[in-house]
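Job type: complex structure
Entries:
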Amino acid sequence: MSKIAVLNEFSIEAVRDALQKLDDFKKLIVNGLTAFELGELEKIDPELFAAVAKQIKRERWYPCTGLWVSDDKEMSAEKLMRSMLYSVTYFKEKFDKEYKVFQGARIYNDAFAQLIYISNFDACVLDSETESYWLDGEAYTRTLVYGGLEKVDINDIDDEFIKANDFESIEDEVMAAFQNELDLKSVKPSVYAGKANEAEMLLEKADRICVQNGRNENEDLRSCWLSLLLGEEDVAADVAEKIIGDGEIDNDFIRLNTDEVEVLSVKYAEEGNGDVVIRLRETAGTEKAITVMCDALDAGFRAEILPYEIQTFRIDKEGYVEETPIGE
Amino acid sequence: MKPYILKPHLTRKITFMKKDDARVPQALFETVNTAPDLKGFPYPLPSRKSEYTCFAEGNNGVIWYGATTGLTRYDPNAERAEDIIMYFSAHKHLDFDEVKAILPEGDNIWVLNGEDSVSYIEMIMLTCEERGDLLREESHKYVMRRGMICHMNTTEPKNIKTALGYTACDNDGTFTADHFVGEVYRYAVLKRELGADHPKTIEARRLATLNSEAMLLLTYVHGRDEGFIARSYHVTGEPLPDDGHFYQRKGDVATCCETNESKKTGRVGEQVPCGYPIPERLAKLYRDLGYTDDDIAYKADTSSDEVTNHFLHYRLAHDFLGEEDPELDELIKDSCRRTMTHIINGKFEFLEHSGKPTTWAKWSKRYFAQAGSGYVDAPLNAAELLMYLKVTMHVTGEEGLWKETYDALIADGYAELSTKHFDRFFQGAMGVGAAPEEDLMYGDNLLALATFWMLCTLEEDEELLATYRKSFKAWSGTLLREVQPGYAFPMLEACPDLELDFERMADWFYRHEVTRHAALVKLNRHDVPIKRLRHGVEDVDKEISALLMPDERSTEKFDRNPFQYLIRHDGRNSHYEGCYPYTFAYWLGRYNGYIAEEA
C-alpha cells in the first residue's frame, strides 16, 4: 500500500525539507498546506512559495484542500461554506486546480455531507475518522468518508524509507477508491448544527446591506470573513459594523412564498461582476415548490426544494437566475 | 384511504394557422399595443418585465400579457397556485416566441406571433378522464400500428393527420407494455363500474387485448425456437432504420440485414432459423393487413428493458384478461414459460441464436462481476430476474424449476444484492465525476418500477417483502423527484407507508394537454433557474431548477429527465408520442382508489 507523505508543520524549514526530498526522489509526493498557509508563505518567502507552486502544478505537491484554514471546532453551515468557498476559489484562481477531496478535522455540523456534496467535493478525509463509510446528508446527498490512509510526516522520514516505499496523494488515493468494490455502511451525522456567533451574524448582515444598497464592498467583506475564519472575531466584527453603519436589513428585499425556507445569505458573487448570490435552506423537513421575489434585482423565480436542502442561486444583472454550487 | 377527488379543469388546446386564414378575426390586426406596468407584480413572470409589449383582459379577471419571449396568462383568482401564471411559447403553443398582437375571445385567445403565424389558444374545461380519452383517441388513431404504440412522425410539422403510419422504435415491447397497463386498468375500472357487458367495457377489453396480442407477437415473430423476444418488427414497405440488427424472414430462414451496426459486429448475412410457428391469432395482426411471414424483418439484440416489460405484461394480462379469454391466457403462459426457460438455459443471460449474449440483457453473476456497468447494474438486474421467476410462477401456477431457481438465487444473495442500488449507483456516478441524476439512464427508473412493483405485490414471505420494499425505496431519489403519478402510484401500491403529496399529483393530471405533440418549449425563462450539472459540459448538460407543469415542458416518454434543459429544434415539431404516461397513471390510480372523478 502506498504511503501518504504529509507536511504537518508549517515552517520555512519544514517546507524546504519537503522540497528537497521532492527534488531527490522522483517518486515522492507531498501533501499539505492550506490555502491560508500558502498565502502566508507567498508573503513571507515568495521564492519558496514559487517552488511549492511549481510542484503543485506538476502534481507532486497536493495542498490541503477544503478549508481556508485548519479548524477542529463545530461551525455553522454558512461559516463552513465560506471556508470552503475561499479555499476552492484560491486553488482555482492561483493554480487552476479543482480538487475533489475535502480534508478536515471532523464533521463540522449536521449539514456537512450536503455541503461537501454541493461544493463539488466527492469525498472527504477527516482526522477524526479512521474507517471508511458513506456519510448521508439531506436532499439525497452523500459523501464518502475515507479512512485508513497510511500517513507519514514528510519531515520525519529518511532516505531509506522513501526508497523502500511508494507514495500517493490523498486526492488520488481517495478518488481511486470509487473504482473499487465498496461495501460500506451508511451513516447520518448526529452532531449539533453550530450556530452563528455574533461576529458572523454581523458579517451576514453587512453582506445583505451591501446588496440592498447596491454597494459592492466585496474586498472588505472577504477580508472580514477571512479574519473570522482565523479566529480574529473582534477584527471581523469591527469592520462589519463600519460597513453596516446605521443600515437595517429590509425583510421585503427577498420575498418567499413560505415561512419554511430561510435566507442563509445574500451577497455579491466573488468575481465582482455585480451578480448577486442568494442562499436558502428548507427548515420544515418537507419538499416544496417555492417562489422567490426580488424586485430590486428585477428577479422572480421558482424552484423545487427538498427537505432541509440548501440551495444557492446566482442572479445576473438582467434578473436571470442560475442555481450554482457554492463555489461562487 | 379515501380517493383524491379530481375536478374538471381548464386544458390548453392549440390550433396553428397563418394570418391569412379565414378563421382569424380582423380585430386581431387592429389592436393597439400598450406595454403593461408590471412594477410590483406579485409572482415570478416567465418573461423579463421589460420584454412585455402588450396586454389584454379576458374572462373572469384573467389578464393576458404578450412579450417578445412568449405569452403569459395571469389568473389572480385561480384556485391552484400552479394556475396563477401560465406560459405559452414556441414551438408547442406558438410558431414564434415574439408576440405581435393578442385578442382575447371569452376564455380563449388569438395570438399573432412572428411575421405571419397565428395561434388560437382554447382553454377548455375537461375532466381528467375526458383528457385521457382524447389522448387515447390521438394515440389509437395516429400512433398505434398493428397494436404497438411507441411514437410517430408526421410529414407536416404540427399536423398529426399527416402521420407516416410507420416508425422506428428500439423498444416497441417496452412502450406497448406501458400503454397496455393504462388500457388494461381502464378495462378493469369500467368493468367494475359499468359492468362487463357495457359497450364501453367491451371496447376497452378489445383494445387492451389488441395491445396484449401485439406484445405476445414480439415473442413469436422471430420464429426462433428458443424463447427469444424481438425488440420490434417491420413489414415490407416500411423503411428499416440504419440502427441495430434486423433479420429478414424468408421461408424457414431469417438473414441479418446490412446496417452500420451489423457491419460492425460482422453479422451481415448471418442466417438464423425461423421455423417455429407463429400462433394464428397473433399473426393476424399483420396477415389481416395482407402481409405474410416473409414480409417480416424483426429486430434482435434485445435488452433487459424489453424482457422486464414483457414480464410486467404477462402478469397483468393474465390477471385481468386471462380468465375470460383462455386462448389468450394459454399464449401468455406459453410465452412466459419459453422466455423464462431461455433465460435459465442461457445461465441468466439473454442469447442470440449464435449463443452469444445480447448487449444489455444479463442477470448473471458473471456480468455482475464486471467492473463498471455490471457492478452498478447488479442490484436492479438481480431483482429483475427474481421478478421474472415470481411472475412465471404466478402466471403458470407452476413451481418446479421456477421455484428451485428462485430459491437458489435467494440463497445466492440476489435479494440482498437488490438493496445495494443507491450505494453502487452513487459510487458509479462519483467514479465518473457526475451527480446521480446526471448519470442515470432514465429508462432504468421504469425498469425499477416494474420490477419492484411486481415483486412487492407477488411476494408473500414477509422477510423478502421487506427486502424488496427497502430496495424499491433505494430508488426514491430519482423516481419521486419527478412528482409523476405513474411512478408514485405503483410505488404506493408496493409500499403503502409511502407519503405522497396528492395536490401535486393532481396538478400533474390537470396540466396535461390533449395532444402528445412533442415540440420543445422555451426553457431559458426568466422565472426558472438553470442549473449546471456536476459533470456537465458548460452550455450543454444542464437542468432547470423548477419542475414545470407537463403542458409547459417537452412531451416525453417515461425514460427522459423532466428537469433536462433542452435546446429547441424544429425536428420535434413533426413528432408525436404515445399517451401512456398519462393513461398508465390515471387508470392505475382509479383502479386502486387513489383518485376519483368528482360525481
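Summary: The mean pLDDT of chain A is 94. Chain A has three domains: 4-187, 196-248, 251-328.
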